[in-house]
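Protocol step 4 of 5: obtain the predicted structure for the target chain.
Materials: sequence only (see below). No template structures provided, no constraints applied. The aim of this step is simply to have a reference model before the mutagenesis design in step 5. Sequence pasted as it appears in the construct record:
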Amino acid sequence: MALLECKNLCLGYGSKIVQENLTFSVEKGDYFFMIGENGSGKSTLMKTLLGFVKPLGGTIKYSSEWNRKGLGYLPQTSEIQKTFPATVWEIVLSGCQSGLGFFPFYKKSDYEKAEMNLAKLGMQSFAKKSFRELSGGQQQRVLLARTLCAARNVLVLDEPAKGFDSEITETMYSLLSQLNDGGMTVITISHDLDAAKRCGSRILKLGKTWEIVK
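Step 4 output (structure tokens):
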């Protein structure tokens, strides 16, 4: 089952075209990698799929299971995020806000979800710590736990292992593989073709031209 289908998609800003004639689909249960060098259009494509940027041409067809309120989206980390003055618990629990609707109070199930995702990422013992006191790898785990609180069945990640050493990077991809094995559709940007071939179910390679390489 296709979660989304792109046909003859043209990406860019204003009159500047970054990629064109993109035709591909993301299937339910995929671990879908977008790879390519800087400037190849990876982040632009992701923002277009999420509705943050309008396509210059072509179409995107979404299934009923592609619901932005139920998506977990993890953008690239920024310096503001790294120094955010909140505890690990506060940040992870805030991922449940998308499901609050008209009732601005967390439910018991929200607290349980936050606890579960902290445990899943091995960060439950850090719950009371300040986020800015954590290492880069620990911060990324916390942000992923927060993203999981927002996600129902789809995770969208923009270079989740960027700037990390090989050990932390491998751990991150392994965690995402486990989530994918558990039924989560994962769409992620990466520069690492080897990791994409090892972990991904499908790979979209972007450059001067594009191709599905797996």
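Step 4 remarks: Strands lie at 2-13, 16-27, 31-35, 57-62, 71-74, 154-158, 185-190, 202-206, 210-212. The CA atoms of residues 33 and 203 lie 5 Å apart.
Proceed to step 5.
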